[in-house]
Design brief:
This protein has about 130 residues and is an alpha+beta fold. About 30% of the residues lie in helices and about 15% in strands. About 20% of the residues are buried.
């Protein structure tokens, strides 16, 4: 990786369709020697194309993918499917994902997550039974 990336930068990742008001903050250490390798491995596993010109775009796509896994973990925790591990350990132990404790150049700094389902916000309509159901 060239020297045009240096220092630490923070990235805020949010998704406002299913998880309004939720977000993940990552700190990326561009001086960490393994960061490029980690992103390269993730792009291969998740079928992204990494070139010399699109490292930041691939990094951001990888952070989105990690955020998606974090939300998945937290949703299952919310539903009572406790995994017995921390979110960082869960992400690091999932195939195709790096450690997010800073050792790989990516540090999961903040996760703001809350979700609730209001049973009165669901839509319901009567449907005709299919031919198979008759």
């Amino acid at each position: 990786m060239s020297n045009k990336y240096s220092g630490k930068k923070q990235y805020w990742c949010s998704e406002d369709y299913f998880f309004q008001g939720c977000y993940v903050v990552f700190e990326v250490d561009f001086e960490n020697k393994t960061l490029y390798e980690v992103i390269e491995q993730m792009t291969i596993f998740h079928d992204l194309e990494l070139t010399e010109d699109n490292f930041i775009e691939c990094l951001q796509d990888c952070l989105k993918i990690i955020s998606n896994l974090a939300y998945s973990y937290l949703t299952s925790e919310m539903c009572g499917y406790g995994r017995g591990s921390s979110i960082e350990d869960y992400i690091a132990s999932t195939v195709g994902f790096p450690a997010v404790d800073g050792s790989s150049g990516i540090n999961l700094k903040v996760v703001e997550f809350s979700a609730s389902l209001d049973p009165y916000s669901f839509d319901i309509e009567e449907i005709e039974p299919s031919e198979e159901d008759k």
